[in-house]
Design goal:
- This protein has 267 residues and is of the alpha/beta class.
- The chain has a single domain, classed as 3-Layer(aba) Sandwich (Carbamate kinase), CATH 3.40.1160.10.
- The protein is 39% helix and 25% strand.
- The protein contains nine helices and 16 strands.
- An eight-stranded mixed beta sheet has the order 5-8-2-1-11-15-16-14, sandwiched between helices. A two-stranded antiparallel sheet has the order 3-4.
- It binds adenosine-5'-diphosphate (ADP) and N-acetyl-L-glutamyl 5-phosphate (X2W).
- Adenosine-5'-diphosphate binds next to helix 1 and helix 8.
- It is found in: Cytoplasm.
C-alpha cells in the first residue's frame, strides 16, 4: 500500500485554499496514494496563549510546555485545528476522521530525553498502524493531531513534524511537509534561492550555521530521521501553491527533496 503522510503546518492551516483539500480527496479517490493527514497549529496556539496572557518560548523550534501551556495546546490542536481540516475535507467530498494521538491509543508517547527545560514535550514511541489501516480501508482520511499519552496517561505536546515522521516511519509512507515557504532556501547577498534537493550533510551544516532556524529545525530533523528509518521520500511543499501537492502526487515534483548522503551518488 502506498501511504502518503501529508503534514499540514499551522503556518498554512488557516490559509489553505479549498482546492488543496479537493486535491487530497482526488488523490485518495485515484487510489494511487492512501493519504494520512497529520497537522500542527503553532501560530494558532501562540495567538491564543497571547490572548490569555500566558508567556510562551521556544527552544530549537520546540515550545517550552508547562501543564498550563499544554491545556491550551491541546485545546487548539484537538479542537479548532483538527476540526477545521475535517470540515474542509467534508466540503471537498471526502470522508475524514479527526483524532488525536491519544484517541484509541493511536500514538504512544514518552518524554524526550534531557527535556528538563522543555517540560511536557514528548516524542512518539509507538504507532498503532492497524488502526490507521482499518480507517483507510473504511474509506476515511485520518486527520491526526499529535497530542499523545504515555503509559501513565500523562499527555504530551509533540511537535507535529516529529509525529508525522513517526507515523511515516511506521507506515513506510512517503512524507510531505506542507508549509508556508516554497522549500528550503539559502540566502546570499539578500537573495533567497530555493533548493530543489538538500542532503543530510548540507542540512547539518545549515543548522549549525544558523541558516536553518526556528520551526524548520524540527522539520529537517524529522525528515532525516524518517529517511534513516526507510521512509522512501521526504519533501517540503508550498501550501500556497495549490498545485504543489497534486504535482508531487502525480509526478514526484517537489519544492525541496531531502536526501541521505549515500543517495547523492544515485541521483
Ligand atoms: N533555510 C530556511 N528555508 C526556508 N524556511 C526557513 C529556513 N529557516 C527557517 N525557516 C522558517 O521555517 C518556517 C517553517 O517552519 P514552521 O514555522 O514551523 O512552519 P509549519 O507551521 O508549516 O510547520 C518558515 O516560515 C521559515 O520562516
Ligand atoms: C513541542 C512543540 O513545539 N509542539 C508544537 C505543536 C504544534 C506544531 O508542531 O505546529 P506546527 O506544525 O505549526 O509547527 C507547538 O506547541 O507549537
Amino acid at each position: 500500500m502506498n501511504f502518503l503522510v501529508i503534514k499540514c503546518g499551522g503556518s498554512v492551516i488557516e490559509k489553505l485554499p479549498d482546492s488543496f483539500y479537493e486535491n487530497i480527496v482526488d488523490i485518495q479517490k485515484s487510489g494511487k496514494w492512501l493519504p494520512v493527514i497529520v497537522h500542527g497549529g503553532g501560530p494558532l496556539i501562540s495567538s491564543l496563549l497571547d490572548k490569555l496572557n500566558i508567556e510562551t518560548t521556544f527552544h530549537n523550534g520546540l515550545r517550552v510546555t508547562t501543564q498550563e501551556v499544554l491545556d491550551v495546546v491541546e485545546f487548539v490542536l484537538n479542537g479548532s485545528a483538527n476540526k477545521k481540516i475535517v470540515r474542509h475535507l467534508f466540503k471537498a467530498g471526502g470522508k475524514a476522521l479527526g483524532m488525536s494521538g491519544a484517541d484509541g491509543n493511536l500514538l504512544k508517547a514518552a518524554p524526550i530525553e534531557g527535556n528538563g527545560d522543555l517540560g511536557l514535550v514528548g516524542k512518539v514511541v509507538d504507532v498503532d498502524t492497524e488502526l490507521i489501516i482499518q480507517l483507510i480501508e473504511q474509506g476515511y482520511i485520518p486527520v491526526i493531531s499529535p497530542i499523545s499519552l504515555d503509559e501513565q496517561g500523562q499527555n504530551y505536546n509533540i511537535n507535529a513534524d516529529t509525529a508525522a515522521s513517526a507515523i511515516a516511519q511506521a507506515l513506510k509512507a512517503n512524507l510531505c511537509f506542507i508549509s508556508d515557504i516554497p522549500g528550503i532556501w539559502i540566502e546570499e547577498d539578500g537573495k533567497k534561492t530555493v533548493l530543489n534537493k538538500i542532503t543530510q550533510r548540507e542540512v547539518a551544516e545549515m543548522v549549525a550555521d544558523k541558516k536553518i532556524v526556528g520551526g524548520m529545525v524540527p522539520k529537517v530533523e524529522a525528515a532525516i530521521d524518517s529517511l534513516l528509518e526507510d521512509v522512501p521520500e521526504v519533501v517540503i511543499l508550498n501550501g500556497f501553491d495549490d498545485k504543489s501537492l497534486l504535482d508531487y502526487a502525480n509526478n514526484g515534483k517537489a519544492g525541496t527533496k531531502i536526501i541521505l548522503d549515500e543517495e547523492v551518488t544515485h541521483v
